Amino acid sequence: MSAQKKDLVVSVDEMNKRILRLLRTNGKMSYREVASTLRRSPSTVRDRITRMEEGNIILGYITLVDPKRVGMNAEALLFASMKEGAIASDMTKLRRVEGVLEVLYVSGERNIMIRIQAPDNRALEERISREINPLGLQNVDLRVIIESVMRFPETSLI
């Protein structure tokens, strides 16, 4: 990415917020569909979306998958701290651990949070003990998610 695109400052005015709300609800909407909903021209919508992509306001597009429909019936949040001598770059190895959905540095004594899923609780425990704990974690607090009440709020951020 060029320095110009990296440093591009894009205004998030009311129209851009409306576009973002629509795309958060349905990222597959075409320029024409967004334009029709907002009563704007498709070229205006395309230009605004392109500027927001280039300005790193829109970071990408993803497909949301129902974990249970693909055999992932257990999900948990793991809170931990790093053992003395472990290095932060070890946490990047979590990208290769199947089922790891998110890794966050958070405040508090247990400053690492990992969201992970697996086919069942036994597989979840095995994955954590064999692949995650050896990376240098200690003081582990595992919280199994019973039910997701609100995972992906459609428009609350904008």
Compile the SSE list and pairings.
Blueprint: H1 3-6, H2 14-25, H3 31-38, H4 42-54, E1 74-82, E2 100-105, E3 112-118, H5 121-132, E4 137-144
Antiparallel strand pairs: 1-3, 1-4, 2-3
Helix pairs in contact: 3-4
Description:
The longest helix has 13 residues, at 42-54. With 158 residues, this protein is an alpha+beta fold. A hairpin with a 6-residue loop joins strand 2 (100-105) and strand 3 (112-118). The protein is elongated and about 55 Å long. The mean pLDDT is 88. The chain has 2 domains: 10-54, Winged helix-like DNA-binding domain superfamily/Winged helix DNA-binding domain (Arc Repressor Mutant, subunit A, Orthogonal Bundle); 67-144, Alpha-Beta Plaits (2-Layer Sandwich), CATH 3.30.70.920. Helix 3 crosses helix 4 (42-54). The chain has helices at residues 3-6, 14-25, 31-38, 42-54, 121-132; strands at residues 74-82, 100-105, 112-118, 137-144. Strands 2-3-1-4 form a 4-stranded antiparallel sheet.
